[in-house]
């Protein structure tokens, strides 16, 4: 492949980002309810225990259930007592914290 190496790099990075974005699917409330009732995922309040233990007194701002590579994940935003917004990813099956970072 000929051409400017910078342009090639930008194209490759852009394609990789699109591929990653395409692998996640947001689930609606009916799908979440069905998965919870069938025992595939735990109730959100039960999943939130580890996050709230890590950030006592935090306020839940947002929670979305997503399917990423056949794994159900809750993406959660918390506002800590210190005023910092944290973005966490929780495995919806067992509550394990998969990601914890400051939200930009």
UniProtKB/TrEMBL annotation:
Signal peptide: 1-24
Domain PepSY: 42-101
Keyword Signal attached: yes
Keywords for this protein: Signal
InterPro entries hit by this protein: PepSY
Pfam families: PepSY
Protein name as catalogued: Peptidase propeptide and YPEB domain-containing protein
């Amino acid at each position: 492949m000929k051409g400017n190496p910078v342009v090639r790099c930008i194209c490759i990075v852009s394609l990789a980002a699109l591929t990653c974005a395409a692998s996640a699917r947001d689930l609606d409330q009916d799908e979440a309810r069905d998965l919870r009732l069938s025992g595939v995922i735990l109730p959100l309040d039960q999943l939130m225990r580890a996050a709230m233990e890590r950030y006592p007194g935090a306020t839940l701002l947002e929670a979305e259930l997503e399917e990423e590579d056949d794994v159900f994940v809750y993406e959660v935003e918390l506002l800590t007592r210190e005023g910092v917004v944290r973005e966490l990813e929780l495995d919806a099956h067992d509550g394990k914290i998969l990601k914890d970072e400051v939200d930009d």
